[in-house]
Design a protein that fits this description.
Radius of gyration: 25 Å
Number of strands: 13
CATH class of the largest domain: Alpha Beta
Strand order of the largest sheet: 3-2-1-4-5-6-7
CATH topology of the largest domain: Rossmann fold
Number of domains: 3
Largest sheet: 7 strands, parallel
CATH superfamily of the largest domain: Glycogen Phosphorylase B
Strand content: 5-15%
Distance between the termini: 19 Å
Length: 438
């Protein structure tokens, strides 16, 4: 069998620093040959790689997220990757709506000063003149043209393209491509391109299992999200607060409305046991969110001193809530059939654990990879179980403190520095191969 031609090695071998004119002639001829045989993108990719190998510039990296302009766990994941790579690569954060580095740094407490941002408009969504600022790939007409083709074209301008929003409709054209999957939302379709990426990285084993079941693809790596909400170590007195922290999704899948209903039921059914307790529900939201308005309306059924809604608060405010809260609730997945509606990992659960909160979370999804039941938190399966587990904690400050201590220890395993170390290791190995000539 004839050995395949190593186009890049031939290209590299024709570099002669002592005879630049001859080098240019030979390299130009090589690139034309590659273009003729494999296409213009392959030719351009080899040229990009040659520039890196010769030390002309750093590797270029694009981190793409169609929801970068929202505060969210997935967006923090991508921004932390950008932060991890900015010293050794030229990093560009790509979105469809304007967002500034200062906003991202404020939201996530990250240094991104060496990164750049770029906005790419999607004509399909711009033409619709939607008031909402989301980009729902589910609205795409699979019989028409792929609206995300413009992102694919952009991906070919970088050495490494990182698709951080699990958008399987983006075909990667870069030399190296990374598909970060927080959960496989849609089935395979005409625009399915997740299988074209160099690597698939999942945020939990739960997500990885569904990538295998839904897409018949094997993840290359499980990389748990970075969670860096460790308490200051100061002796802060915990208050009678149940805290929830999740984005106010338009779909309501985080179930904040159900939290209000359940807490109201607890107040009226168990007035003595719940005396002095309040619930604080915090999260980010898009403008004009009808689900948030439903929550506001439902909250008015409770006495003012028993409930607080905190929308789009600062990082410092959020840290203060975690420090003060005794119990943490997470309901995503309760009474749901669709696996997508379960928590794919549970970043806010870990944040609560890092602040010695006793978490009561739905037994499902990625939460089972975080908490050990009755050791570092409590699981529930039904509304009644949630109420009973919560009352158990309300009744015993010593139980809350014991679980809080063990949760704090477990939460340390997910800190940002561990995530950054794993990211650097992953990309060091990739770049080692990329910068070598074999």
């Amino acid at each position: 069998m004839e050995k395949p031609v190593n186009d890049f090695k031939i290209l590299f071998d024709h570099v002669d620093r002592d005879n630049p004119e001859e080098s240019i002639r030979k390299i130009s001829r090589d690139l034309e040959r590659i273009k003729k045989n494999k296409g213009i993108q392959a030719s351009y990719n080899d040229l990009l790689r040659l520039e890196v190998v010769l030390g002309i510039r750093k590797p270029s990296v694009a981190v793409y997220d169609n929801a970068l302009h929202f505060i969210g766990g997935a967006q923090k994941y991508g921004c932390t990757i950008a932060h991890s790579l900015q010293e050794i690569c030229d990093v560009t954060l790509i979105s469809h709506k304007k967002v500034t580095l200062s906003q991202l740094q404020e939201w996530y407490g990250l240094d991104l000063n060496k990164c750049m941002t770029k906005v790419i408009k999607i004509p399909f969504f711009e033409a619709r003149k939607q008031e909402k600022s989301t980009f729902d790939a589910g609205e795409v007409d699979l019989k028409g043209e792929n609206p995300f083709h413009v992102v694919s074209i952009e991906s070919g301008k970088y050495d490494i393209f990182i698709n951080n929003c699990m958008l399987e409709m983006v075909y990667p054209l870069s030399n190296i491509s990374e598909f970060i999957c927080h959960f496989p939302e849609r089935e395979r379709s005409r625009f399915f391109h997740a299988d074209k990426y160099s690597h698939i990285i999942c945020n939990s084993r739960y997500t990885g299992e569904w990538v295998s079941r839904k897409w018949d693809l094997k993840p290359h790596e499980i990389l748990y999200p970075p969670v860096d909400m460790m308490d200051s170590g100061e002796d802060v007195k915990k208050e009678k607060i149940i805290l929830s922290v999740s984005r106010f999704e338009l779909s309501g899948k985080k179930q904040q409305l159900e939290m209000i209903q359940i807490f109201e039921r607890m107040l009226y059914r168990y007035p003595e046991k719940t005396e002095g307790w309040k619930i604080i529900i915090a999260g980010g939201s898009v403008d004009g969110n009808p689900y948030l308005e439903r929550i506001r309306k439902a909250s008015r059924s409770l006495p003012e001193e028993r409930i607080d809604l905190k929308v789009d608060i600062s990082l410092s405010e959020l840290k203060e809530l975690y420090r003060r809260a005794s119990i943490f609730w997470h309901l995503a997945g309760l009474e749901q059939i669709d696996p997508e509606r379960e928590e794919h990992f549970g970043m806010t659960t870990v944040e609560a654990m890092q602040n010695r909160c006793a978490s009561v979370v739905y037994r499902g999804g990625g939460q089972k990879e975080i908490i050990e039941d009755r050791v570092s938190g409590l699981f529930f399966n039904t509304r009644d179980e949630l109420i009973n587990r919560t009352l158990e904690l309300m009744d015993s400050s010593s139980l809350r403190e014991e679980i809080g201590r063990k949760a704090y220890k477990r939460g340390k395993e997910f800190v940002k520095k561990n995530f950054i170390r794993k990211v650097k290791k992953h990309f060091d190995e990739i770049l080692k191969g990329y910068c070598s000539v074999r």
